[in-house]
Amino acid sequence: MAVEVILKEHVENLGRRGDIVKVSEGYARNFLLPRKLALPVNAGSRRQVEKGNTIAAAREAQEQQQAEALAARIAEIEVVMSRKVGEHDVLYGSVTTADIVHGLQAQHQIEIDRKKVHLAEPLKQLGEFTVAAKIHREVSASIKVRIVVEEPHR
């Protein structure tokens, strides 16, 4: 059985803030409502969402503008990771999203959530790579990652 809910936040593959959508009763009861992503449809909730939409639209525009500035800054930089290598330039271990985020913070003082960095599989070779990061719902950035040989300590 389907129920109607008003979305309080953007939900991927479902709708944007303020949309009235029909979802299964279980999805609404077990996911949307407990996480405060939606409200049941009634007159009071409609007024509450309409009032919040104007504030949210201004906040959304500001967040998107900040995300675009961050994406432009990320496009201009390169994260250099040094790793030990074995035969055929294969890394001991790999470079993961957590390593890339840590490198961004340490080398360029840019903080992003590691869940926003999308890496199909960990990087296990020397060289230059481009890694996608979804900074905002509508803003993506490409992070240039260069993996070099770690110099031995003397």
How would you summarize this macromolecular structure in one to three sentences?
This protein has 154 residues and is α+β, with helices and mostly antiparallel strands. Helices cover 34% and strands 34% of the residues.
Task: Write the topology of this structure.
Blueprint: E1 2-7, E2 20-24, H1 25-32, E3 38-40, H2 43-75, E4 78-83, E5 90-95, H3 97-108, E6 117-118, E7 123-125, E8 127-136, E9 139-149
Parallel strand pairs: 4-9
Antiparallel strand pairs: 1-2, 1-3, 5-7, 6-8, 8-9
Report on the structure:
This protein is α+β, with helices and mostly antiparallel strands. It folds into two domains: about 1-65, 3-Layer(aba) Sandwich (Ribosomal Protein L9, domain 1), CATH 3.40.5; about 70-150, Ribosomal protein L9, C-terminal domain (Ribosomal Protein L9, domain 2). Helix content is about 35%, strand content about 35%. A four-stranded mixed β-sheet has the order 4-9-8-6. Strands 2-1-3 form a three-stranded antiparallel β-sheet. A two-stranded antiparallel ribbon has the order 5-7. The chain is elongated. The chain starts with a strand and ends in a 5-residue tail after the last strand.
